[in-house]
Amino acid sequence: MSNASERESAGLRLIQFLDRPLLGLAMVSIVLYLSEISGAFGHQEATWSIIHTAMLVFDFIFLCDWILKVSVQRWSYLRSPWCLIDAISCLPILTVLPMFSSSLQSFRFFRGLRMFRVLRSLRILRLLRSMPAFQQFQAMQGGTERHRRFERALFVGTLGFSILFISIVSLTRHFVVAQEIQELRFHLNQSLTAQEIQALGGSFSQLTFPNYLKLKGQLNGQTVAVYFNQHVIEQPANLIEFFLVVGVLMGMLLLFYLFVHLLRDVSFEQIRGILHIVLPHQVAEQFLEDPQSYNNKHCMPGSILFVDIKGFTRACEELDNNLNKLSEHLEGVMDDLAQSLLNHNLIIDKFIGDSIMSFAGGPFSSSDPQDNAYRMVRAALAAMQAMDERNDPYFRHVKVGGASAQDCLIGAFGTSTRLSYTVLGDGVNLAARLEAACGECKTRNLFGPMTYELCQDYDDIQWRCWGMIRVKGKLNPIRVYEAFDAQSMEDTQYIDTFHKAWEAFSQKEFKEAKKLFQQADQQAPGGDDPSKEYIQWCEVLIKQGTSKDWEPVLRARKG
Fold this sequence. Notes:
Elements: H1 3-38, H2 45-73, H3 75-78, H4 81-89, H5 117-120, H6 132-141, H7 145-188, E1 191-192, H8 194-199, E2 202-203, E3 212-219, E4 222-229, H9 230-233, H10 235-278, H11 281-289, E5 298-309, H12 312-318, H13 323-343, E6 347-352, E7 355-361, H14 369-390, E8 398-414, E9 419-424, H15 426-441, E10 445-447, H16 449-455, E11 461-470, E12 478-485, H17 493-506, H18 510-523, H19 529-544, E13 553-555
Parallel strand pairs: 1-3, 8-10, 11-13
Antiparallel strand pairs: 2-4, 3-4, 5-7, 5-8, 6-7, 8-9, 11-12
């Protein structure tokens, strides 16, 4: 990163950091302004001078903020309506000029425009801006016509409102102050005593306070110079200005209330709904709380699950390519499957045609590997049960592959313009391979060895060791397992028989293995497809024999 880019980045961070404190300072300056014109501080020159100085310091701070934004953001800020609003709100600093202090007193009203900073402090407007992909999208798209119309409306509205109100305040102040001065001159043209002139607020010595008015008066028949505190003379005009400003500010506060508390809530819920559609709900909720969390990547344990709906091609043929009806049945099944996964707090990664990829783990889920693996297996069993209960005429079964891994990289991945919250690692590849291998193994689900090790002690899960398979991308064969819901199984004897049969099979005792597999098939309610598959394998090996390097491993063609 170049030095210029680093300085610009540091400047933007400083502007963002100062945003909230300046909002508070804006509210304080508005309160002081209203207190001043209402006469809440009395007419003591020392007190008024301190308050006036404090407000000028605030005005100088806002002027520095405007200069900082111009120097950092340059043209992008200068062409925005916020530049005009910030510049106008700095105009009260002109009242520091003695020669203009009286004529520019109405400029004090522009401190009220600092209330617009409330709009820029809305958290909902900052959610997406913290994402690099959104920033890149904005840079590529530029301003949309709708956004440009909003900026033009804000620019014209602010300028028109400022001109209109400052004209009203200036004319009102001029008329009221002129009336006050005319009355003072009328009284001073009469022959008055010193006590009567002092009762009018006049003084025969020049005031030290810079804002004073010098008039001529008759003292016992002689013409003398009489000095009046300008602030006292302007007090009636200040009171009128006070009520005008309070009325305007109350109207602005009402509009801000509607915008901030009502429109913001509506927008927030709309954005929340959109995020729940495009992101996993766990990620969406965390992102709403902490937008920066979407940019973080974590290396941690995880369990990955692939669920694939069987019979898609057959369903297309049966429905004679009636895509509307196909979509209706497919979406209904997908809803049930997705809900089964969400009920066990799995993060749905993506939908791949008629398949769902999900995982348990990551910073928005449990960090316990055993809990992650257990929830994944239970979610898989729930998904299969949901398919059985739905009994859809076209989509009846699913294939499920699951795997756990110690090291998974979890976070937002993609390009500078498009990101997806997902999981990467060897466990993802293995889970996908096991899902594909279910068809060849004649099982409804297959899980890797680590998942079995993490879940073998749970009483509500019944495991069957299917055997050994070799999947694409793995040098060595792995032992795979099939999971059952123990609570719904009446008899598990056939699983024990299957394990004995596989032991005989791995020892090349194919006749004995065939006999035991046949027994397991008979014991299983409705038969056992994996046992049938092994029976055919045994018959081939009995007939053809084996080589010296033979091993009891199925080479999965799809996996």
